[in-house]
């Protein structure tokens, strides 16, 4: 769903597999999927279509690096 909505809105997105990184796995394995928009946590376990659209529409695009993800949540 994230891919479809981002394509509809012309917004880039990035998917990470928490199992590919031990630190991410430790932090997020019980919360998959975990969704961030512009470095802000949107939610855990499921993606709400309407909430994602609102977050993307109001967002200020920022690059989310793996280091930021680990340091801030």
TrEMBL record:
Source organism superkingdom: Bacteria
Pfam families (UniProt xref): Glrx-like
Protein name: Glutaredoxin-like domain
Taxonomic placement: Bacteria, Bacillati, Actinomycetota, Actinomycetes, Propionibacteriales
């Amino acid at each position: 769903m994230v891919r479809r909505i981002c394509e509809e809105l012309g917004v880039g997105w990035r998917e990470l597999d928490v199992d590919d990184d031990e630190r991410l796995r430790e932090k997020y394995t019980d919360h998959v999927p975990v969704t961030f928009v512009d470095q802000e946590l949107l939610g855990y376990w499921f993606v709400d279509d309407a909430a994602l659209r609102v977050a993307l529409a109001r967002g200020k695009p920022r690059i989310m690096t793996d280091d930021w993800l680990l340091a801030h949540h």
